[in-house]
Every structure is written in structure tokens, then in C-alpha cells.
Design a protein that fits this description.
Helix content: 25-40%
InterPro entries: Glutathione_synthase, Glutathione_synthase_a-hlx, Glutathione_synthase_C_euk, Glutathione_synthase_N_euk, GSH-S_sub-bd_sf, GSH_synth_subst-bd, PreATP-grasp_dom_sf
Shape: globular
Cofactor: Mg(2+)
Radius of gyration: 23 Å
Structural class: alpha+beta
GO molecular function: ATP binding; glutathione binding; glutathione synthase activity; magnesium ion binding
Distance between the termini: 9 Å
Keywords: ATP-binding, Glutathione biosynthesis, Ligase, Magnesium, Metal-binding, Nucleotide-binding
Catalytic activity: gamma-L-glutamyl-L-cysteine + glycine + ATP = glutathione + ADP + phosphate + H(+)
Number of domains: 2
Bound molecules: adenosine-5'-diphosphate, magnesium ion
Number of strands: 22
Length: about 525
């Protein structure tokens, strides 16, 4: 059985045309912001696959089932500043972003917290892994990373998933060669509906409701504030969330990072966050601050820091809080893979369920594990099985395999401890067609499943330390990105990563597709 099905030239051309029309009419687009034409809108489509990529139903379900325990873990770690400082101390010494964030946290702690709720909008990313020595075995899930700040792609995936289901119902996927040949995707339940847009907006709405009425004197209305990148090109992934909130009668506004935050917001004497939209004379009180930026070091100049400090100091519920932001650092992920680490917050059953998805990770410090990792990294032969990662977000920072040794030789050794070394995940190769800014592609592909976990938790102070108590949680939702198997990174902006949706199949079908 071949998948994707073989299409005639005519069918292929029609599919490309159908996809382009869907992209334009549904906003599968990146905005070209640096164009000076006033009377037009210039965009570029985001990369997309033509067909849903085959994915084992069992692993799709398993990834969803893991999320409640990951939510519990990442909420707990975000309230455990003692453990976090221990893990991040080395990084804070050499990394400007970690130190900027830790300084802001320390200042807020010094002032005293006025909000004990935090909203987590997480995305836990997995690849399938097959042990290269046992290629006949079924693949298992391995976590690539868990993102805690500005998790993107939810709306793009939603649009592509809807597109694939639409194309399926029109018969566009029916192979013409040979006529009436068997079609792998027959049941609509093989193409799971995507509700990521609804999930994210419902999470923000739940936090907005939990905040309650305005508390500042003379203020009657509350609103959600999105903190976004100036010159934002990814509006198609953000705006629909805002529109969905307005549809629920929740006012939602956007403020670009930096001086605009200081111009348009202020703190009341009791630290409510007040926002003055340009369109209104009255201030509104901000219930939730949702960061869609703020993870790049260049954003933390004096103005950027003042803005983030003001937001963090306020009574608004943050998504994420500074500590929750820091839990997404790769250094934290690596520390959580240490034997016994998870049991600090989880039951043994939860810990063993999550740790099965961890690929081996090492620090590059002076501990014995760090010394071992340095040996692995400096020998190009062993290094070929690893990825070197800094604690940075946004993509494009990793160093892969054979390049690691040379990279480290050109990096001052005192900076090595800001990196972690992760064993390469060895994904099964599937087939698909893709279209992105790099052009049209047909061939082997690798997919990455993201699970969106949305939860609201409360800090419960217990003497000097604090714990997290989950207040509410939504059913997780998913994203799928797929890339050409010959590239290491997954950048959507560079056109490597394409949005996708899974065609869920049983193991026998999946294994025969992988072997074919
Ligand atoms: P970030 O998204 O913060 O840049 P990631 O850890 O997600 O960092 O890595 C970026 C991309 O690199 C991933 O999307 C994945 O395609 C690839 N990658 C990361 N870790 C591994 C790994 N251990 N094995 C194989 N590929 C990896
Ligand atoms: Mg990533």
C-alpha cells in the first residue's frame, strides 16, 4: 500500500492550486512587515504538507495522556525557586537572558507577590524514536523539549488540519493511479479534528474569569493583554486567539514589547496593571498578560527589562510568570532527566511514565556527568550521535553531530556550561509532499508532534517554600510540524518546518509504510 497515494500530473496541479486558495482564504500566512507599499497586504504562505503524515494512533494517544503529569510537573517546578536556582546558578553566571530573568524575579520576590495564579500554555514536543540497532521495533515517543513561553504554531496547525480534512472530503486525495486503488485514509476518525485555537483561547478566558472583577478604584472593565513582538510577522498565529476572545466578550489588546509597554501600562498603588488603549480615554484593568515574545536576549535592554518588571510586579495573571518562563530552559530539561529528579514533585508512577520519554541529556560542566559529556562532544565520532543545545528559544541555535567538536573548540570553555548535550533522536522516515518558501518537495520526511497543555495553577506558600496546586486544566490539543528528512532544524520561518496533521493508523499499517 503506498502512501501518499500516487497522483496524476493533473491531480497534483489541482491539489497545489487548492492548497494555495485555502492558505489565502484561511490565513496560512506570514506577514511581510518590511514592505513599504501602503495600499496592499504582502504575505508569504507558511509551509504546509500536501497530505496528512502517517502517525501511529497509539503514540498520538499516549502523547495526550502524558500531558496532565507534565502540567503538574512544570507548574510545580515553576514554584520551586530553590531547586530552580540550584539548576540555573551556573547558567545565570554566564547567560545574559537567564540572569536578566532571575534579577527580575528576585526584585518581584523582594516586593512581595500580589498574584498567586499563573497560566501555563505549554507545548511539549516529541519525535518518534527507533533504536538504530533494532529497526524492526515499534518506535516510541521521545521528548524534544517542553516550551513554556510564547508557544507558537497552534493556530497554523489548526488551519492546516482543517485544510487536510477538507481536501479529504473533496476526494482530492484519491489516487488515480491505478484507478480505484485502495485509499489508506478512509475513516474520517483517522484525521483527528484540531482544537488548538479553542484550547488556547479557552485557557486565557478561564484565567480572565479567575482574576475576577476590576479591583482598582474607578476602573470598571478588565481585559487581556497580549505582549507581542514589534514588527510582528506571525500575526496569523496570534490574531485569531484575540478575535476568539472578543467573540466571548473578553476585550483583548496587543502591546508591542518595549517602550510601548511603559507608555500604555502603569501600576496602581495596589499594583493592579492598568492599560490605556489609544482608542479609549478610560483605563482598563489587565486580568491576564499573555507573552508572545520576550524570550530573546536583545529584548532585555533597559526599557525591555523595565517593561517586563512592571508586568511581572503587577496583580495580572501572567502566562508565563518569570519562573515558569525559566522552566522552559534546556538546562532545566536536562536536570529533570537526572535519576530521581522527578520524584521531588511527582508520584513514582507519574515519574516513570514521563521519564520513559526522555532522551539522555548531559550538562557540560565539571560534574562527572559533565566530564563524560565533554568527552563525547569533543570526539567527532561519538559527537555524531548528539545535539548541542544552548538555553535559547526561537530556533536556529543548536549545533548538530559532527559540527559540535569544532564549535566547542571555538567557544571559550567557561561558556560551555550554558549548553546541554542531548542524544540524537532517530525518527522513522515517512513520505510526503511539501510546499514552503524553499519550494516544492517530495520525499522522506520527519514529523514532530506538539502537545498543547493549558492549565491554571495557584502558588501555595508553605513557610519559605511554595507548592503549585492545579486549579483548572483543559484537555490537551496538538500541533504537527514536518520537515525534509535531510535537515536538522525545524524552522518554520526558514521554510524547513511545514505545518501538518496526522493520519492516525494502527501499528501494522504504520510499520509497513516505514519499511516500504
Ligand atoms: P528550539 O526549538 O528551542 O530551537 P529544540 O530543542 O526544539 O530547540 O530543537 C530544534 C529542532 O532541532 C527540533 O525541532 C528538532 O527538529 C531538532 N532536534 C532537537 N533535539 C533533537 C534531538 N535530540 N534529536 C534529533 N533532532 C533534534
Ligand atoms: Mg523547539
Amino acid at each position: 500500500m503506498t502512501y501518499p497515494p500516487r497522483l496524476s500530473d493533473e491531480q497534483y496541479a489541482a491539489l497545489v492550486s487548492d492548497i494555495k486558495d485555502w492558505q489565502i482564504t484561511h490565513g496560512s500566512l506570514l506577514k511581510l512587515v518590511h514592505t513599504d507599499e501602503e495600499n496592499t497586504v504582502q504575505c508569504q504562505p507558511v509551509g504546509t504538507t500536501f497530505f496528512p503524515t502517517l502517525f501511529p494512533r497509539a503514540l498520538f494517544d499516549e502523547a495526550h495522556a502524558l500531558q496532565t503529569a507534565f502540567n503538574k510537573l512544570y507548574a510545580a517546578v515553576a514554584e520551586d525557586d530553590e531547586w530552580l536556582l540550584d539548576v540555573l546558578r551556573d547558567l545565570i553566571e554566564v547567560d545574559d537572558l537567564a540572569s536578566a530573568l532571575w534579577e527580575i524575579y528576585s526584585e518581584v520576590k523582594e516586593e512581595g507577590f500580589v498574584q498567586d495564579l499563573t497560566l501555563g500554555i505549554f507545548r511539549s514536543d516529541y519525535m518518534m524514536h527507533v533504536d538504530s540497532k533494532e529497526s524492526l521495533r515499534r518506535p516510541e515517543l521521545k521528548q524534544v523539549e517542553l516550551n513554556t513561553v510564547s508557544c507558537a504554531g497552534g493556530v497554523h496547525t489548526n488551519i492546516v488540519s482543517d485544510m487536510h480534512r477538507h481536501l479529504h472530503r473533496t476526494g482530492a486525495y484519491h489516487s488515480a493511479q491505478p484507478p480505484n486503488s485502495e485509499n489508506l485514509i478512509t475513516r474520517s476518525s483517522d484525521l483527528p479534528p484540531n482544537s488548538t485555537l479553542k484550547t488556547i483561547s479557552a485557557g486565557l478566558a478561564a484565567a480572565h474569569k479567575a482574576y475576577g472583577p476590576a479591583k482598582s478604584q474607578g476602573v470598571t472593565e478588565t481585559c487581556i493583554l497580549f505582549i507581542v513582538a514589534a514588527d510582528n510577522f506571525n500575526i496569523a498565529d496570534e490574531r485569531p486567539i484575540e478575535y476568539a476572545l472578543w467573540d466571548e466578550s473578553i476585550p483583548s489588546y496587543r502591546v508591542p514589547w518595549g517602550h510601548e509597554v511603559l507608555i500604555h501600562t502603569s501600576l496602581s498603588p495596589t499594583r493592579e496593571l492598568l492599560y490605556r488603549p489609544a482608542s479609549r480615554s478610560n483605563a482598563m484593568e489587565v486580568s491576564v498578560v499573555y507573552f508572545r515574545t520576550g524570550f530573546e536576549i536583545y529584548e532585555y535592554d533597559d526599557i525591555g527589562r523595565m517593561g517586563r518588571l512592571q508586568l511581572e510586579n503587577s496583580r495580572a495573571i501572567k502566562s508565563p510568570s518569570i519562573l515558569s518562563h525559566l522552566t522552559g530552559f534546556k538546562k532545566v530539561q536536562q536536570a529533570l532527566t537526572a535519576p530521581g529528579a522527578l520524584e521531588r514533585w511527582l508520584t513514582p508512577a507519574e515519574a516513570s511514565m514521563l521519564s520513559r520519554t526522555f532522551a539522555p541529556m548531559y550538562p557540560l560542566d565539571d560534574t562527572s556527568s559533565g566530564q563524560h559529556a565533554k568527552k563525547l562532544a569533543l570526539d567527532p565520532e561519538t559527537a555524531s550521535n548528539y545535539v548541542l543545545k544552548p538555553s535559547l528559544e526561537g530556533g536556529g541555535h543548536n549545533v548538530y553531530g559532527a559540527e559540535i567538536a569544532a564549535f566547542l573548540q571555538h567557544t571559550p570553555e567557561e561558556l560551555w556550561k550554558s549548553y546541554v548535550l542531548m542524544e540524537k533522536i532517530n525518527p522513522p522516515l515517512l513520505q510526503n509532499f511539501m510546499m514552503s518558501s524553499r519550494g516544492l518537495y517530495e520525499g522522506p520526511v520527519i514529523s514532530e508532534l506538539g502537545i498543547f497543555g493549558v492549565c491554571l495553577w495557584k502558588r501555595v506558600q508553605n513557610g519559605e517554600s511554595a507548592q503549585a496546586e492545579i486549579v483548572s486544566e483543559l484537555n490537551p490539543s496538538w500541533s504537527l510540524r514536518t520537515k525534509d528528512a535531510s535537515v536538522d532544524e525545524m524552522s518554520v520561518v526558514k521554510g524547513y518546518g511545514c505545518f501538518d496533521s496526522p493520519a492516525l493508523v494502527d501499528w501494522d499499517v504504520f510499520m509497513s509504510a516505514v519499511k516500504a
